[in-house]
Amino acid sequence: MAPEARSILRTLSVPELRALAADVRADVSGCQSKADLVKRLGDSEAVATALTAPAYRVRPVLAAKSPAELRTLAADLGIDVAGCNTRRDLATRIAASPTAASLLPAPPKPVAPPDLGHEVADTLVQQGRNQDVDLGLIDDLLDQVRMRFEERNYDRSLELSREAILLAHGTLDAFGRAAWAYALLAAQRLIEESGRTGHDVEPAAVVLRDAKVAYASGNLAANEYLLENLQSATKALYSQELQQMRQSVYASEDRIAQGKHLGADMAAAEEALGRAKEAMRRAEHGAAREIVAATDRAAAEALVRRVREIEGMIPATERAITEARHLGADVDEAGRLLEKAKVALQRGEHVLAVELVQRAERSTMQSQHSQIERAMELRFRQIERAQNLVTYLVPIADEAAGYDLPIEDVHRFLADARDVLNQGDYVNGTVLAKQAEERLRGIVPRLVEERAKRGITKPPAGRCGSCDSGDVAFLDDGWARCNACGASWRWRAPSGLWERFRSLLRE
Fold this sequence. Notes:
By secondary structure, the protein is mostly helical. Helix content is 72%, strand content 2%.
């Protein structure tokens, strides 16, 4: 939609916007704020058509006036504003009046093309343009004059000299009329091109008419100053037209550069601008102006598409932030950047909005990455803790197997725990290891009994091999632990069963 239509929508209140949506049957469900309504209605062609009515077009004019100025304007137009207390009420009452259409600027009147025709001169110009001018005949005749003179044939040389002079006068006259014809035609084309683009061409048209009158009279030599004046007048028109065309081209280049900076696809606009420059080089200013207008439309359409893409980036980023927050990631910074992006988008600062949305996306991904790293680190610690428990229980089960105690369930739990932990499932691996630990806890007293039967007792004292501390605890399950440094080792030597089971764990 055109910027003028958007400015009209911004002057309407929320109830007026909803009433407009109802009139044109536009869907505004989900729109909570005025900005949402303006954005939704701004994309509707039906709304764009409705806003062409004078009651809407006059709203921006009224919005720029103070309450006092509105009351004065209402009095001038004979509009009753009784009961209107606010500026919005005054503007609404005035806009609804049929006389408010007088506040709109009058449409520009079409400029009639200048009358450059001259019945006699135009016919002569076409004849002069098409006639052949052969200067070679004069040169050949002059050579004959020179040859007869060298032959001392003076009478024939005199006769040929006279013929050469007469032929030169006739050829020069034809040459002059042809040159004048092309000069008049070129000036007429320039004046017509400038007239189609709205320039004041009447001064140049007056000179062209005088030059055609002179051409029709045949007195070209006495009126050469007209060609000089015509050249000056048309050159001024051409320079003015060329300057305006260049300004239009530069403005289009700026729009394309801004769109590309925003990330819009400006290929179609750039192609059209190239054709406009080529038309301007050929002095086809009318065609160049039309192509520049097409360039601006293509750039505007590409920019609108890019803005819609930017608007679509915000909900996607919001969903990513919500998902990251559900995973426990700290996305407060990303949320703050996204809110700033929304404000920038409402203000039309699209470049800033894109940058803020991209920063919000990066911040979200960084937060997710940090959360995933913490989760992976926790997972590795849990797996390591479960594997350490399995390693701790294996020699106890081995000793119990050496005494023929029933540990089939324990072996099965430990084997399953090993397989599950190798697959990275620390939850089920820990559960299985805990189940094996519970079974072995009930078997430890029987281990003590079996050792007593075989005369195996715990060492009364010992020293830690790591820190050489004497504060060592010897446990009934066959493990020893240093209370100083936390190191642990088996005081009960392992058997071959334990070694075979450890080889299974390493596989």
